[in-house]
User: Fold these one by one.
Assistant:
Number 1:
Amino acid sequence: TAEVLGEFVMIEELQQRAGAVIAGWCGSEAGAVAHCVAGAITMAIAAAIAGEDAAAIAALPDAGDRMRHVLLPAGHAVDYGHPIVQDIRLAGGVPRLVGNDHECSIARLEEALGTGDVACLLLVSSRLVRGAPLDLDAAVAAAHRHGVPAFIDGAAQDMRLPELLATGADLVFASGQKYLASPTAGLVAGSAQWVRAFRAQERGIGRAMKASKEAIVGLIAAIEERRGMDTGEWSRLQARKVSEFVERCASLAGIEAWAQADPSGMPFSRAHLRP
């Protein structure tokens, strides 16, 4: 990151390089880098509305007479510093919530999908997502049965990218600056068709959400470092840290301590403390 700050680069060439690295690492057809996951969501919704049509891209967030409704399970309408539905609205999309905070069944989702939406946005279960967990494989399949693309916000789930892509999702987003420890960046992986449409938004509203050269190079370096990491040994080290921490905290008067598997499926446990 520091080395590239003083260098001149062709961003298009750098994006192509990053896309190849992302695809090779997680097994997708293609990849890209945005400024962050929030920006990536907005660009993906823009791609669903405008596609690669230059005039439509330039007009956003005015979608004109194009379809612009985006389906989202109600429990997935989270607020992570700002409402995720605002990411949809920024692109000219209209969020349409399905189910309630307690549940969004696949049957209910399928019923709602029959009304002409341009995309279905899904989130990985986490501390922010409300209600019963949603079967992502079944949700993506339901969207595709109705000809609707499915996008998954994986946020901090970079270690689960192959698993999330295996759902058949058209695009999956993950943060570079969390467990990958890169500079702030939104990692995008998915089908070649949808990544191409996603990148077409760089000539529209995506211009304000572009990744800098140092973020792209830093993300490439972080992925290369991850590739060289022994993930099994890393997981064992984390387990030992948690176990020792819980054991020491449990010896303190008035403190209850225990370990619990990560609720979002990452390969480590978390320490919990309660007075």
Note: The CA atoms of residues 154 and 230 lie 22 Å apart.
Number 2:
Amino acid sequence: MHQGIFLGDEKAINRVYPEAVRASLAKICALKETVYTKAAVLDAPERFASTAYIFSTWGMPAFTEREIETCFPKLRAVFYAAGTVQAFARPFLARGVQVFSAWAANAVPVAEYTAAQIVLANKGFYQNQRLYGRGEPARAAAHFQSHAGNYRVKTGLIGAGMIGSMVAERLRSVETEVLVFDPFLSDARAEQLHVRRVSLETVFSECTVVSNHLANNAQTKDMLGYALFSKLPPYATFLNTGRGAQVVEQDLARFLRERPDCTAVLDVTVEEPLPPAHPLCALDNCFLTTHIAGSAGQEVWRMAAYMLGELQRLEAGAPTHYGVTTAMLETMA
């Protein structure tokens, strides 16, 4: 039986890996209950020489190739029960260690959240609620009446990766027309998702809601600026559950000041949390949340369950589903 360890932040691992998943893991590999830190590993590398599997989540430490060679000479795989592996994966992959990520599990609540926000945005919910709560029911009602609802309106998705695709699938039930900008989206996949491929400019100029799902990399930094925001139609909403770095926030703040009919719903920003003096915080048509779209509460258990499934398939010699490659890191969030 191969040996496995928990590595990283103890609180995060205890939150993400429920007892039922731990018990199932322990039936497959010799799993130690202790959660080790990088310091503990480097302090006594000989204790980890037979480790074949690492189980982690948010807080997974980064290792150099030399450290991996010294501490984990028999390591076969890292199972990361969370989303992006950009901060640690490359040295492991370079050493021939398989890396698995629960990005698909974490994508589920983000897609659910995003689809829900799109439905609300097309109903004018955000400003309607704020105006009504301030004792302005007439303005609140007028704002609501200015929205077309969801039936056969155009909703725009920037990016059709795992999350964007899940959002598109969920929007079919409300019969909104989905326009997508994604250079990597094939015609066949677009047809399968029932979406229409368009330019980025078309997404902003024709859609009542634009939702960002771009991968986070150097090519997408500051990609969404004033020239695009200014194309949004009346009473449109910009929704961001992707990454804050893709938005030029000063440009977005300028646009929202100039266009009080439009709305921004931001679950992510460049700096989190935003300082109180940030211009976005002062705008009545900007709605900020503390990065809540991802897995929360018991939803995090799904990520551990996905990694358990990958271990089961790996041990059985069956094809795995959520392995990460170096090439994938170039376009993944």
Note: The chain is about 40% helix and 15% strand.
Number 3:
Amino acid sequence: MKGIGKEYYGNRVLKDVSFSLGPGRTLSLVGENGAGKSTLMNILFGMPVIHATGGFEGAVLLDGEQVSIASPEEAMRLGIGMVHQEFMLLPGFTITENIKLNREITRENALSRVFGASLRWLDMPAMRTDARASMDTIGLGIDEVLPVRGLPVGHMQFVEIARELDKKNIRLLVLDEPTAVLTESDAERLLDAIRLLNSRGISILFISHRLDEVMSVSDTIVILRDGERVAEMRPSETTIERVAELMVGRKIETGEI
């Protein structure tokens, strides 16, 4: 993302923000609430609110070429996935049905051969196989035919990620506060999953307020404050205390973090 700027009705929320992310790497984006993190990710994912309010300044480049991401559908076509802070699962559907939603696998039958594709049957064995493969990638060892309703929140978060991984061309995954609702053990499992995805060449944009996790999983940390990029560094070059000071723009006293 290069020179990104955004204004909402006279209020400038992003000012000339740039960063780059290589394949199989994790970049953490940190900042206080209102720093511009979500707006930046909405631009990357082509969310309608961006284009309905005048678009943005700057450019998004993929493989060195500028791309126009006018919608989430276009982002997904380019291999960009996003797991939002709020769960976007259908509780009355099974895990498999949620993972394959809008990408269902169907098969012919006698009626569809006569009356058309709208009467094709769902190929549930094939869908379960795909769902199982995505779940195994991140170590979610529960039955893929369980209903989402009643699952622990940690499992629901992993289902969200598995759904994105089922998109076969996925190359960049945005995780917006993915550990906010997780227990400490589930959060550690998720960080392990991020490392595994990196090893398979998938890049991760990780947004989190949990700075210990940011330090643990990141290759690069980008710090935003008041819509501007104020620093970019590797975890080995800094401390949690220094990251927190850059986020808020002042010295942090002991006990504030």
Note: The chain has a mean pLDDT of 92.
